[in-house]
Write a structure and sequence with these properties.
This protein is mainly α and about 475 residues long. It is built from 24 helices and eight strands.
Length: about 475
């Protein structure tokens, strides 16, 4: 999205606009009003309205090529407006029954999809058109000065893309928010306090104290050659669950003895903070080590890391670790003793590293999967397969836990609102007698028969735990520690 597009990005928004079918109709028929008459079964009133709108309505409607069908934005099949018109004009009982069904499918294009899905839009009592106006005033010159009316809203956005994913016409509020941040940064108006902590955290992850390329030693002491696979767990997962990361890498080594692991940050904190120079430095360092390893395929444990690599290192081939485990990575692996030596941990991994991951696994009773915002259908299905929860439905659009975009310093109240809404959604997916409170699951110990939420994002897990939910990372389930968390 370009700078000049911000104030106009929501022009295609259906809210408060004539419906697409009305715009496509040569007569400009007010379809919403006709459908409302039909839904109320006010057939005489509908007939009078239609004949008033279209002269010689019977002939015109019979001959009409129905351009409205091509304009319909229904997520299902296009609404058959011609059938509705014929029922209104003919008065046939069978036709009216079919017309009622079609009218019931019509959304009237009074769209609230992004408002219903996005906590931020509801929190600020906004809609895309009002957001576009406020962003324009905030980041574009107005009367030779800039008024920061939307600064807090801009920095309260998780940048997860949920609003765009659910929009039937693809209005991209997420891109508008991201571009607004960039413009504010360029003008020196992006508050450093919103991102300083995470920039320092990223700097530590890329420092000699934390950054590491891990390779198994060759039996003869020779220097290792090119790696066939590179495991990239992400900085937060390695920090929160070092034992699970070590166990996962041990299992990968059992299948691919020349696999390497890179302990680093993907650079997304710099991306969210619009620190382009810092992001370029991280990208250059990651690229150099990836090329030194022979440009191997990358196995990502974090969906945000994969999304960031796709943006900054598009030449890197990669897939999610969970897809690999659910397919080629699930076969029996050769034993390896690398499990406890990769990252120093206090608890050893109790699952033998050569075990067929997921085979015969009994998932925690009543477990509900929470899919992080950057996940796709293939990863979602793979995680359910590994957990033995293949029957659990995939989300229409995955939701952000609230971590994305580093919104906490700008709006801790909104983060709390997001977490409460996510907890309610997860609890609704569990059996009626279950809940995700850690107390109801016996504290923080991993109990195989306790209801819980399982996710595959370390930030989701950590935030949910901070809210008292019994949350587990999928690697905790696949590679459980001997003595709790």
């Amino acid at each position: 999205m370009e700078r000049g597009d911000i104030k106009n990005y929501a022009e295609g928004c259906l809210r408060d606009n004539p419906s697409p079918c009305q715009a496509a109709c040569p007569y400009g028929l007010d379809v919403r009003r006709l459908v409302e008459f039909v839904r109320a079964e006010r057939w005489d009133r509908a007939g009078r309205f239609l004949r008033a709108e279209i002269k010689d309505a019977e002939t015109v409607c019979a001959a009409c090529p129905a351009p409205c069908r091509g304009a319909c934005v229904s997520s299902d099949a296009p609404v058959d407006l011609k059938r509705i018109e014929q029922a209104v004009l003919d008065g046939d009982d069978a036709g009216r029954a079919a017309a009622l069904a079609e009218a019931g499918r019509c959304t009237l294009c009074t769209c609230s999809a992004c408002i219903d899905a996005c906590v931020l839009i509801r929190y600020f009592r906004q809609n895309p058109k009002r957001i576009a106006a406020d962003l324009g005033v905030t980041v574009l010159p107005v009367a030779s000065k800039i008024k920061h009316v939307a600064s807090r809203m801009i920095h309260s956005c998780n940048l997860c893309g949920l609003c765009t994913a659910v929009c039937p016409v693809g209005v991209d509020t997420c891109a508008a928010m991201a571009e607004s941040r960039r413009i504010m940064k360029e003008g020196g108006n992006l508050p450093a306090a919103y991102h300083d902590f995470w920039m320092e955290d990223m700097a530590f992850s890329m420092s000699d104290e934390a950054y590491a390329v891990v390779r198994p030693e060759a039996a003869d002491g020779a220097k290792a050659g090119a790696a066939s696979l590179l495991f990239f767990p992400g900085c937060q997962l390695a920090a929160s669950l070092p034992g699970a990361v070590s166990a996962a890498y041990a299992h990968i080594l059992g299948r691919a003895p020349d696999a390497a692991m890179l302990l680093a940050c993907c650079g997304v904190p710099a991306d969210w903070a619009c620190e382009e120079e810092a992001l370029a430095d991280v990208t250059a360092k990651l690229r150099a080590d990836w090329e030194a390893l022979g440009r191997p395929e990358v196995l990502f444990a974090c969906t945000t890391c994969k999304k960031t690599f796709e943006k900054t290192l598009p030449e890197v081939r990669g897939q999610m670790l969970y897809e690999w485990l659910a397919d080629s990575g699930r076969q029996d692996a050769a034993p390896t003793s690398h499990c406890e030596t990769v990252i120093p941990v206090g608890a050893a991994c109790s699952r033998p590293p050569n075990r067929d991951v997921g085979a015969g696994l009994a998932p925690p009773a009543g477990a509900a999967v929470f899919d992080p915002c950057a996940s796709d259908a293939a990863t979602q299905a793979a995680v359910r397969k590994l957990l033995g929860l293949a029957g659990q439905p995939l989300p229409d659009a995955p939701s952000c836990c609230g971590f994305g975009g580093h919104i906490y310093p700008a709006n801790p109240g909104l983060l709390g609102e997001i977490l409460r809404e996510r907890k309610a959604a997860v609890d609704g997916a569990l059996p009626s007698e279950a809940g995700t409170d850690a107390a109801s699951a016996g504290g923080t110990a991993l109990s195989a028969d306790a209801p819980c939420v399982v996710t595959y994002c370390a930030n989701c897990r950590d935030l949910f735990l901070s809210e008292g939910m019994d949350a587990r990372h999928v690697l905790e389930v696949l590679f459980p520690p001997e003595s709790g968390r």
